[in-house]
Amino acid sequence: MVTMWARAAVAAFFLFVGLAAVPAKADPAKVRVSVYLLSLGKLDLDRATVPADFYLTFDCDDKCPPLDFEIMNGRASGMSKVEDLPNRKMFRIYAELKPTVDLRKFPFDSQAISIVIEDKGLEKDDLLYIADVKKSGLDPEISLPGWTLGSWKADVAEHNYEVLEESYSRYAFTVGVTKPKWNAFLKTLMPIIFIFLIVTFSYVIPIEKTDTRLSAATAALVASVMFHVNITNQNPPLGYLTFADKIVLILYGFLFLTIAYNVVVYEYVQRKQEDRARKIHENVKFKIIFGAPLLFALLFWFLVR
Question: Would you state the pLDDT for residue 283?
Fold first, then answer.
């Protein structure tokens, strides 16, 4: 009996020693990441690319782990190491970034240009990024042709690869850009509004000149189609309607109804039924002149929200 208890005590002792000898899993290395954006090139919406020149810095409390990062949403075309200290690594990178383009609100669209960094080999259990906001920012002379730069943000998220059963720490530096609203209005929507108003006020033309009003509406439809093709060519092929597309579709509907109305009135005039044509025209004229712009403005407000 004593021998059995002795053997059990010896086994428990060696088990305790063995467990104590197993080293505890080390905490992941924490690396502070910062981006200082120097310049941006032309934002190419067809290819969804934008060139960028920036400094990327890694700061560690102790010795930095072996860092082998990659740009997840682009490709570095040039890279040079500016600092290579045990606790600090700094790179200057020229890269072609691929932002996620959303043109649903074109021509009043806003885009986000991001620099997304992730390590190739070290998972989140080995490496954790920390966004160093104090050392990040935009150069005062930075600009993006055709766009207005807005605010920026830097954050870190955990990115899971479920198929690989791996998880990595991911750093993202994001700059918001918007198109100047006044320029977008003048270049894209002002012609549409003028076409709409010209056709609307053509309703003051008397029935004796219905053919003139019909010609104006037909010419406006042709001009609208050509203008729509022009603004559509500014964007890549899309699987959805933009704000400009919806406004032009409203204009198409108005022009189609105007042409149909004028054909009916013209037919009455040709049949010598001027009284009936004049009665119809007087009932419709003021409703269109005052009601159509109001309805157009309401639809515009509803779509632009």
Answer: 87
3-state SS of the chain? CHHHHHHHHHHHHHHHHHHHHCCCCCCCEEEEEEEEEEEECCCECCCCEEEEEEEEEEEECCCCCCCCEEECCEEEEEEEEEEEECCEEEEEEEEEECCCCCCCCCCCCEEEEEEEEEECCCCCCCEEEEECHHHCEECCCCCECCEEEEEEEEEEEEEEECCCCEEEEEEEEEEEEECCHHHHHHHHHHHHHHHHHHHHHHHHCCHHHHHHHHHHHHHHHHHHHHHHHHHHCCCCCCCCCCHHHHHHHHHHHHHHHHHHHHHHHHHHHHCCCHHHHHHHHHHHHHHHHHHHHHHHHHHHHHHHC
CA-nearest of 238, 253, 231 to 299 is 253
Q: What's the CA gap between 287 and 84, in Å, rounded?
A: 75
* 238-256: pLDDT as tens digits: 889 999 999 999 999 999 9
The whole-model pTM stands at 0.80
| More confident position, 304 or 178 | 178
> Do 195 and 289 sit in the same domain of this protein?
yes
CA distance 73 to 232: 26
Token pair belonging to 228: 């729509």
| Mean pLDDT, residues 263-283 | 88
Where do we find the tokens 């990659």? Answer: 70
Residue 235: give the domain boundaries. Answer: 182-304
**Please, are residues 173 and 186 in contact by the beta-carbon 8 Å criterion?**
no
Pair (171, 189) in one structural domain:
no
Please tell me the predicted confidence (pLDDT) of residue 112: 94
Among 130, 148, 179, identify where a domain stops.
Answer: 179
